[in-house]
Amino acid sequence: MRYAYLFLIVIHGLIHLIGWFKSMGWAENSPISAPISKSVGGLWALAAILLVSYAVIYGLKMPESWMLGLAALLLSQTLIIMFWADARYGTIINVLLLIAVLFSYGEWQFHQQAREDEKTLLGGLGVPTPIGSDTSGLPSPVKKWLARSGALKKPRMTHGEIRQRLQLKTATDQKSFYPATAEQITRIDTPGFLWQVEVKMNPLLWMRGRDSYQEGKGTMNIWLNSLIPVVRESGPKIDEGAMQRFLGEMVWFPHQALQSYIEWEAIDETRARATMNWRGMQASGTFTFGEEGDFTRFEAMRYYGADKDGDRIPWILTVQGYEEFDGVRVPSKLEATWQLDSGHWTWLKMEVESIHFGMD
Hints:
The chain is an alpha+beta fold. The protein has two domains: about 1-105, no CATH class; about 135-190 and about 245-360, outer membrane lipoprotein receptor (LolB), chain A, CATH 2.50.20. It has helices spanning about 1-15, 15-25, 40-60, 65-80, 85, 90-120, 140-150, 235-250; strands spanning about 155-170, 180-185, 190-200, 205-215, 215-225, 230-235, 260-265, 270-280, 280-290, 295-305, 310-325, 330-340, 345-360. Strands 6-5-4-3-2-1-13-12-11-10-9-8-7 form a 13-stranded antiparallel β-sheet, with helices on both faces. Strand 2 (about 180-185) and strand 3 form a beta hairpin. Helix 1 (about 1-15) packs across helix 6 and helix 2 runs antiparallel to helix 3. The mean pLDDT is about 95.
């Protein structure tokens, strides 16, 4: 689909050269019957250059391609209107170009906002909050997990960057999973994360999503084709859910277990309850560990939906595999499940492609 579009734009651009050829007297049998001055012919040549250049940078997936595409569109359509009787059918291609430019603008705007959010999230990393290395006061399964992970042999983590490959469902009656990719930045010393996802629904439709947790506040935003907003959620329930997610994802950043905003309570030899207190809000969840110390499951009571009638129900993360990243052993394959009245609904399957830790 993408290559077919690029082919059309290139051909569309080359056709514009007919106007230039006629102005130079090189096209006696031109389909454009009206006379064309050399100055206007130069504009036809410029439109051709802009259209072909746009096709190149669009093909290279450069976020700024929409700017050149918009300039090409405006010039092309102006010339078509000037020579409407002979060139009007070029408008069909320009309509396709307009749609692509709008979607590209949405992508560019999405990434611009992401860069601003990232800058805010990682601001002040040079002054991390104090953290100790004494694990004597932790429940025994937590101590065993930290030792198993190898994190205690590493410098203190302040933040991390994660790339993920996903399969997800957006509704309980959805039969198959949508493929998706995601990138996440998590700050450990001052709790926060920024998660961006692209979901492929079909060749013509996709979704862009951004979940964030900063200064104790959570947000959830989803755009169709990076342009049309379909979900904008915030408020106390989203704040709490984002905090619970941050808490559960501690298993990717073991040093988080030693932060002062986390309190631990032993349950038995394989389970411990963690409670996070931050910015006047509290969230808890239960971590389960295997015999060798690996984390295997996290469960929290989390709001299912942000509407006023939404209730807390069990939200469960389970581990399907482990890998080592930057010398730290962490879960690499996980599934997220809601425990609904109708049964367990696994809506997310995740595979971690890479993790890079920022350390002191």
